[in-house]
Amino acid sequence: MPELFSPALILVAAAIAIGPARGHLRTGVVLLAPLLTLWAVWQVPDGVQGTVSFLSYQIEPVEGSPLRRLFATVFALMAFVGGLYAFRLARWYELAAAYAYAAGAVGVSFAGDLISLFVYWELMALFSTVVVWCGGTPASRAAGIRYAILHLLGGVVLKVGIEGVVVSTGSIQITPMLAQDFNSWMILCGILINAAAPPLSAWLADAYPESSPTGSVFLSAFTTKTAVLALILLFPGEPVLVGVGLFMVMYGIIYALLENDIRRILAYSVVNQVGFMVCAVGIGTQLALNGAAAHAFAHILYKALLFMSAGVVIYRTGKNRCTELGGLYQTMPLTTICCIVGALSISSFPLTSGFTTKSLISQAAANEGLAWVYMLLTAASAGVFLHAGIKFPWFVFFQRDSGLRPKDAPWNMALAMLIFSALCILLGVFPQWLYALLPYPVDYQAYSAGKVVFYLQLLLFSGLAFFLLLPLMKRTETISLDVDWLWRRAVPALLAWLAPFVSSLQKSFGRFSQACRKLLAHLAVRYLGQPHTADSAERGMFARSWPIGTTALWIAILLSAYVLAYYV
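Predicted structure:
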């Protein structure tokens, strides 16, 4: 493979080819391109593969390492399973945008310098916006615009930080740093926007539920996890990330418990789960960084699985609110089982991937003597079980009978869900398969009698609390507002309040502009004369004939003024 060839380019080529391809050829492109990308990922050796000179900088578009391969592997795998899930339902331009989006994530994984990282970062922002717009509704178009604004803002903030680092150090290398100056803080803030860190996290719950049932699967995988990778590469051991991560964990739990829309529940659980990873990066030990990377890998699998099951429900029923659903297990047994597997995995249930990865983070906190962090992360695991582990499958597939009798998932959607369900279980039963891919050696036993009993007790008691409090969990047709209150309520109210003042200003400006037009017309007549007149006496000052000496004098004055201005 050429040294400067990034595996991301395969997905870029696929995105370009999807449009003109038709029928089975398009299906072949959709399914084979991610597999070819996965093969190419494992052909990239460790280290910088080559450089390109650009504006006196040495660009390193491809740099291999175990950490980078791990993230690129799961991104390519996600592209394959997502394409399998979507190819019969999604329109060609949605698939093309999704593959370009995935290409950006793979490109970020191998980017060896800050400029390459930024280019692929913006590629993700651009095409993820298109994926949101492919929802095809007025709500999705509006959400996509808000999504684009916030991510472009994040890109600007990141670019400011990168430029500051380049100017101050003269280097574009990706090296670990701490948030100690303006430039590093800008880079950190730009990354945290993509990580959906509150208060700039509303874009996730705002946009993801408005995309198509297939688009939300792709959206759940790439943006936030590339942010986690960037944090591992640039800010390992940054103390502020511990607090940010814990806040994300609790924030996501609270809002997910309040939600009625099934995809908004899952969107807020993304914020919650990424919080675990951000907290691990802040701890910064080898075990913690392994935990962040492993949990990102596992999270893509089970979160995509949950969004797939939600997508099948929406596709078959046309409904997306808990108040409208229930009893679907009767005619959708496969989707129900896959959903339960994903729910158990996100809840860190033993024998699932979530248990073998999330416990790495908790153990890293315990090893560093961070008792309060350990206790909060443990409590959060119970909260995750409440909203994603029980609430989502219970209200959608069980509890009351809604009377809906939809068909189960089409074969391609079913196969995609089965693949990720199998991986969630396999990585839970054989965690060493995943541990072998991590960036640092793993000396950790996921399963011990004490850990298993502790987590089972924690989850079972939280489940008991859910069913005891079930009569109090009244589901309503409302949605919960967080920072999106600004554009849903505050901004419209402010515009309505300012409307009379704006109208008054418009009237005043109209009168002022009319007066200006009259003045200009008067000056034009005075100095330029009446239009289309041949009478020299009626010509204005500047339209009349002047003696040659006067003309030369004006030229001399203008030249003198120019020379004076030039030298001053």
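Summary: The chain has a mean pLDDT of 86.
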